[in-house]
Amino acid sequence: MRTAPTPQLSTERTDPHPQFTRGTPLTGLDEVPWDEIQDARGSAAAIPVLLDRIARGDAETARTALGELRQRVCRYGFVVEQATAATVPFLWELAQRPEVSCRARIIELLGSIAGARQWESTAAVYPKLLNRRENPVVWERAARRAVRARREAIERLMAEDDTEITRATTELARRLGE
């Protein structure tokens, strides 16, 4: 009995961004002690799972995971948490991965973090806040520094053809004073 010939599949990559594939884990994600730091809901242990869903999920999965992540690290769009600064480098990485479906929303989240001053504003009125063992003003400042530390990506993001990404990046650059 004869069988049809099996076509030979190409072994060459056709991905224009081979360093970013759906199977590529986020750099250094397992090096953060997530279970030892806090987000808005308690332990930040769920953050790596959410970041992975954003990185590897379909559009709906990524959007849902980003919404939950936002509530954990930047509630209401202006209240950061202890885990926020540790999350920012991964947000920058995701924002630059072409296969991630919610990149503009990630950039908007980075903008919210960059503009967060809720704890500092509260401490200006209630200075005793600064005497707490876990000082949220320190978290807020660390989160803003983390956003600024990776701002060299702004130029690349501004060169994107996607108008949503360039709009969100323009706003982020404005917040950073770039």
UniProtKB/TrEMBL annotation:
Residues 1-28 are annotated as: Disordered. It comes from the Bacteria. Residues 1-11 have a biased composition (Polar residues). This is AbaA. The lineage of its organism: Bacteria, Bacillati, Actinomycetota, Actinomycetes, Kitasatosporales.
